[in-house]
Amino acid sequence: MQSPLFAYTEVQTQDRYALQNGQLLRVALTGQDDVLARKGAMVAYQGLMEFDGEYRSSGQRRARAHTGEGLDLMRVSGQGTVYLANLAQYVHVVDVDRDGLTVDSAYVLAMDSTLHHEVVAVDSQYGISGTGKYQLIITGTGKVALMTSGQPLMMRVTPDTYVSADADAIVAWSSSLRVQMQAQTYSSPVRRRRGSTGEGWELSFLGQGFALVQPSEMMPPQGAEIGAGMAAQFGMGQHGAHGQNRGNAWS
Q1: Burial of 52 by CB count in 10 Å (0-12 exposed, 13-18 middle, 19+ buried)?
Q2: Which residues of 157-190 are buried (b: 16+ CB within 10 A; e: fewer)?
Q3: Domain of 177: which CATH number?
Q4: Is residue 170 domain-resident?
């Protein structure tokens, strides 16, 4: 059999994490170094591998129930190679250092099992109930694989140059940064969007570090609804995240 498909062979590398291509992650395991991956993210594997549900502490369960933020993970162990992907999202491997990484859990594909993660709150400067944003802070030393809808933009934040990003487009940032959440509006009811621009909540970052932004304010198909109106804008309905996207319908 002959086909151009045979050009898409396995990546030959000694690295633990390697991109098979821009949308497929290859993780090599030696039997002593488990990896935590997004549930259902395995697309193929070689060798003797085991997949187990990852235990969540009572604190993590309470945080998930209260905030909706958290990771649904499986533990991958054994000797061999596992390939991970999620809805053909672009994959990026990040080294987490002592400063830590703050990230939206929706964009985490995999991470070293030695890393620690917990839910933190990014509060609205207006102090309005329900307008804050919850994220995950990942600490320790290791690697985490993030996903974006399209090729992202990495923005440097310095004391002289602060960065603002749409709250639905920001993927991750250095945990050392100071963060403020605000609404772009001139009207007294801050829930109302600014004029007819469609711009709403944004995060402003100050300090020294980086902010990662994707070229999308939603993550299809979990976070998007075909059509127009409020349901489409906020990921409601059959195809939206709040509708659980039953049957992975996207047609």
Answers
A1: exposed
A2: beeeeebbbbbbbbbbbbbebebebbbbbeeeeb
A3: 3.60.160.10
A4: yes
CA separation, residue 148 to residues 132, 151, 197 (Å): 22, 7, 24
128 in a structural domain: yes
Q: With 0-12 CB in 10 A as exposed, 13-18 as middle and 19+ as buried, what is 9?
A: exposed
- Tens of pLDDT, residues 155-176: 999 999 888 888 888 899 998 8
Other Cβ atoms closer than 10 A to 27: 25
- In degrees and rounded to multiples of 5, residue 156 shows phi and psi of -85, 135
Residue 68, in any domain of the structure: yes
Q: Residues, the chain, total?
A: 251
Are 234 and 240 within 8 A, CB to CB? yes
Tokens of 241: 């995240």
Domain count, the chain: 1
Domain carrying residue 117? 10-234
Contact 104, 170 (CB under 8 A): yes
CA 45 to each of CA 4, 21, 75, 80, 126: distance values in angstroms, whole numbers, following the listed order: 22, 16, 14, 7, 48
**Residue 140 DSSP class:** S
Say what percent of the chain tops pLDDT 90: 34
Residue 21, domain member (yes or no): yes
